[in-house]
Amino acid sequence: MTNVTDNTTTDAAEAVAAVEYAPEHTPRLAWAELAPEVFKAMIRLDAAAKKGLDARLVELVKVRASQINRCALCVDMHSKDALAAGESVERIVQLSAWEESEHFYTRKELAALALTEAVTVLTDGFAPDAVWERAARHFEEAELAQLVATITVINAWNRFGVTCRLVPGHYQAGQYK
């Protein structure tokens, strides 16, 4: 007698294996290989920018800016780094709708996310005073300077990723640390 559950599981696994995904695109430019000194400088700048900040907060900020900028490589990379830093899947998933999901985040994280959006979306004008004041209530000045640096650096990384059409899915957590 055949176990129905085993057949169902086998059939489901075969169906998933039979799914044909779209082909992976190729990058436009291997900029890091062609401009290695710039890449190394960006790595150093990134490390300097996040000094003194909580690793999970840094990754939340990087994921959110990358979502806004539609940088698939950076969304992939920083989601993996966030998980490795102890962040929950649920909080990462909710980032794209953080204003509707405030109860998942601390007031400090919410202030950082609001500042991330204000600094990332400059087409709306300057970062509003209310957003700045909210962040300033939750971060010491030195910490706020590091946060602004972190947001600025991830936006630069996003520009490289989007412009060069860098491919997500191959990054391993901590690869560039």
Report on this structure.
64% of the residues lie in helices and 0% in strands. The protein contains nine helices and no strands. The chain has helices at residues 4-18, 31-34, 36-49, 55-69, 72-84, 89-94, 107-120, 129-138, 141-163. Helix 4 (55-69) crosses helix 9 (141-163) and helix 7 packs across helix 9 (141-163). The longest helix is centred in the C-terminal third of the chain and has 23 residues, at 141-163. The radius of gyration is 19 Å and the shape is globular.
Quickly list its features:
single chain, 177 residues, mainly alpha, 9 helices, 64% helix, globular
Q: Major beta sheet, specifics?
A: none
Q: Enumerate how many helices there are, as a single number.
A: 9
Radius of gyration: 19 Å
What pattern of helices and strands is seen along the backbone? HHHHHHHHH
Report mean pLDDT, rounded to a whole number.
91
Q: Give unreliable regions as ranges.
A: none
**Helical content band:** 55-70%
Q: How far from one another are the termini?
A: 54 Å
**Counted beta strands:** 0
Structural class: mainly alpha
Shape: globular
Content of β-strand? under 5%
